[in-house]
């Protein structure tokens, strides 16, 4: 096969989205050729297509960062993988371990499907360092949700907040990161309170939520206090942001950690100073995680039996429908598969 | 001596402040009698007197939390100290070690000179557990500044942010906590940038600041970027709060820590989400520290030769003038001494 | 009821063990009266009775530290518990939170059934600070195993080694601490390898062990390497000690943690320096944990559904048989109950 | 210049050491050419030459790992440095950040002058990733002591033990790592007790030691207890190893950390279990540190004004004399310079 399909935009805007036939790429030195099997979509992908999000995109531009696939070609010197190895991508490929790159003035926002080309294509040639081995216990549609949704929840809850059994975790959503947070927290023996839409209660409990609060009710904060006997949440997965962060601080236990992950409610957050200071609360800014952390997540998924929650799968050609789905809100992850 | 002087208010408001002659108290079981030598004032003391700050004060109420003094009486069963031991108070006496008390719903704001009676008196009877040994290397006027100003800077920089040699610390003030922060950071081999008023440059440099930025200049943030080669500050001692916290987040290095300590600019803070998340920044809410931490600070003061910066000392009778001084801004600490 | 039964020794040695009728004690100020329901035995109890273990015992001496029971009396000023509250003891009662007591020269070995009187009695009057609430999800026979066996495994794996999902844990035993370690590790989503006697394989796997290695086989270390693809164990629960610690260091992964808990194989341990240094391995000395940590374990037990493994229960009068059982090796915990 | 001098051995043993004239190497892709100015010697270098230390040496083999020099040539694609940049080497070049490489079965002992060729040469072509910028405040003879002696002390005291002001540090030697430990501890405001030879007392105190104990005296352990009021040392820099580690554990404070660094007294260490367990002591195995940690040390050296202690400098041709000096024990570091 010498040609393949790839989504591209030549300018910012949904109306510029095109599925094109292009040549299959050839891996360069220390690169591998990956046959993509599935791509996990994130809300950010929709924003990048529709607004560019201020990123320095080079057109034609291919969106998305999260793939699961198979090694089908090895460039000169490539040695991390063998042919047929199943792999997933890292979304922030320059962040190997320890501190992420960047400076105070210029944070490094170099992601696949952002600064670097994205993964909505049948084949990709990419540096072998940008990939990690896929978990043996997941199929491709499940595995492709790890690089952003899974890793963000993992990095916040486990590597920053230091979650442990018996902790109470509060998660105010049922999106992709949120449900990974629920599953990762349960895998660590935590008690989890999810706040979501009434119609999602049953399936959220089936995934393991100990308590479910109806987001539509006025007294949802009061309910968190009651469920915890006023103790509050040891860890909050703040996936909404804006003024909601302030509510997370008020719900945090003494010594609690708030993982600030999402900015759905705005790019400026606000919070009250007194509970932050009087409860010794810590706020961790979380933007995915390192490649090492992704490797640890893969081990955790295999050993703890975590199965990512997939709301829907769309074939490659139906990307626009998948993006619309994301816009309406998903219960867990939305995935695109290469096979029609 | 059977009577002594003590400041009291019978109602909220500066106009109710009275210096009264009252009986010297008698220590109960497990209490000690302390002859107070000096009291360190904090801006909070002024606010409590003038506004009550929402605290459940019981009148007549004595303000202030930070004393240095001497053990001159032992109640039944008291065993932590001997007669003539020099001591300082803990401002948050219920917080011995580990986690502070309180719940998510009701943070524990039980301080001396707040929930508990304060220390602006010649003698005090108090539980022996509320005191720690004073540093041998400081006189009383210096030692009385440790319980809040010193401990807050120590707890944030050292016990939460994990400061170490070579780190860059940014401190946007020259008040009591700020100058302790400067001295503690220098004692750990850090590089310190202070932002303050033009007239304070020279003495701030004398205390050890590596760089001084004029707060009045529009480009002060730009200067922090320049001084750090865009790297930013590893630790920020945020003593101003409000929207200033957002600036601290923007100045923080990748992996940087912001200690949120002060609320001079308002009790709600705001900050931009993207640099927080893309730089893996952590915000620590800091409200003094535990008694164990105060004991570690005492050891640090003795071993590292830290000498607290005292702007002015006032005799007990001139408390109102001392409070006015605080209101105008002090360079370091304002202290009240018992000897006229 | 005014008299009760209590085990006592008047001198060191099993031959001095007596079950006596003594008056029910009366709680003093800030004390509570506990009706003991069950006592968890530890190997240490047997050693204290038989050898004194160098402790400053005051005769008549009652052994053992771990009880579950009920509050049936409140001394003056006691306020932490209400009548009928179910409680368990802390074995190291002076260690509330943060650092444990003691000095370099004189480590504080002040335990119940060691320095302090023990708990093998139908009723006990003790300071209320020495107790914590029992987990709601356990009966008394289960709950009484937490204070030493459960807490030691928890403190090592969770609070010192920072265990998390996906980690590989190696446990070279099936005793009380070991099986708690297995259960706590599984509750955190870890992969667990247990090394034990052939006859214990099946029940160890039923409790959750992912792999079981026959301790009798010469190549057990080789098998740990093989099972981990040479990666080694992220955490080792070293409950044997002596030269076995050296083997644990050799089996530890890069960056691995070894929790040194037991001294069955001798009070001096040895280990090779090169793997310790070249693999950045950390050895944590573990001797139970703080009261705060016990409270966290109680929450973990309730939320993660951990059910302690009980090998056998003996009535109070059969303590000597129970001690013999301990001497032969138990699969999990040996418990004494008050009801005959 | 097309030829240069380089020390080589063609077989294990001091008698095979030769200073040869060889061609100046040419940097390959992503390599740089370094003109070496100074080389810091470690006791390990002597052992590698004399015994091979079990390493897979390829002959002719050049020993030593620690250089300071200047970039004088850039291979294709090299971009981390510019011409004339002053650099120092990393001794464990594969360890960039986070976890070091290696497995449980096969620790990665891939150092310069061990697995990789060493640096006792006038010029070296090496991957640019193996170097970091030299501290601006040190000359070459000082800077070349950082990669092993400086980094090992830094990594143990600061990045593993979390040293802070007021801590008491015990250092039982006056060698290269030991004196770096003294200086780094003092730069963090710690109290430092050094145990060494009588003749070294004065100069050790001049470098900053608060207390000096004569190693020859029988009661040196007693003196550590006395100097700390029985509290013990918060951190011990164990550079001797063997049975000495046991003494370090006995001297450690409750919650203390022992950095196991040296194996002068043997490759097997022994220690008593009870004080390890009853004092909650942690032993950290330390084998240099990551490149990121070296960069942090460089910043610390520049900001805290640390000046490495150099016992003697030898010209390149006098390497054998320098090695003899190491064998007799040095006060601080022994350095070889390229200029005769």
TrEMBL record, chains A, B, C, D:
Enoyl reductase (ER) domain: residues covered: 13-336
Q: Which SMART domains match?
A: PKS_ER (SM00829)
From the record, give the transmembrane residue ranges.
Answer: none
Pfam families attached to this UniProt entry: ADH_N, ADH_zinc_N
Q: Could you list the residue ranges forming a coiled coil in this record?
A: none
Q: Which InterPro entries match?
A: ADH-like_C, ADH-like_N, ER, GroES-like_sf, NAD(P)-bd_dom_sf, Zinc_ADH-like
- What name has this protein been given in UniProt? NAD(P)-dependent alcohol dehydrogenase
Q: What is the native source organism of this protein?
A: Roseomonas haemaphysalidis
């Amino acid at each position: 096969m010498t040609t393949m399909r790839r989504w591209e935009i030549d300018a910012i805007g949904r109306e510029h989205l095109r599925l094109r036939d292009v040549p299959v790429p050839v891996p360069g030195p220390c690169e591998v050729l990956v046959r993509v099997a599935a791509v996990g979509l994130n809300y950010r992908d929709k924003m990048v297509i529709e607004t560019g999000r201020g990123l320095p995109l080079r057109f034609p531009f291919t969106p998305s960062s999260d793939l699961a696939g198979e090694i089908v070609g090895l460039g000169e010197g490539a040695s991390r993988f063998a042919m047929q190895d199943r792999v997933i991508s890292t979304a922030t490929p320059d962040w190997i371990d320890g501190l992420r790159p960047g400076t105070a003035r210029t944070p490094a926002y170099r992601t696949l499907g952002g600064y670097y080309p994205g993964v909505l294509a049948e084949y990709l040639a990419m540096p072998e360092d940008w990939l990690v081995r896929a978990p043996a216990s997941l199929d491709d549609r499940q595995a492709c949700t790890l690089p952003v949704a899974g890793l963000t929840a993992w990095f916040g809850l486990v590597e920053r907040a230091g979650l442990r059994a018996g902790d109470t975790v509060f998660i105010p959503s049922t999106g992709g990161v949120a449900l990974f947070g629920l599953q990762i927290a349960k895998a660590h023996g935590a008690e989890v309170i999810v706040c979501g839409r009434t119609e999602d209660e049953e399936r959220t409990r089936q995934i393991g939520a100990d308590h479910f609060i109806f987001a539509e009710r006025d007294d949802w904060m009061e309910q968190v206090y009651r469920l915890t006997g006023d103790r509050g949440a040891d860890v909050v997965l703040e996936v909404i942001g804006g003024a909601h962060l302030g509510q997370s601080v008020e719900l945090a236990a003494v010594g609690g950690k708030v993982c600030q992950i999402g900015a759905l409610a705005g790019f400026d957050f606000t919070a009250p100073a007194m509970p932050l200071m009087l409860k010794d609360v810590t706020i961790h800014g979380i933007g995915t995680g390192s490649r090492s952390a992704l490797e640890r997540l893969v081990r955790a998924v295999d050993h703890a039996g975590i199965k990512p929650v997939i709301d829907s799968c769309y074939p490659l050609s139906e990307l626009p429908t998948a993006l619309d789905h994301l816009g309406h809100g998903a219960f867990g992850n939305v995935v695109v598969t290469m096979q029609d």
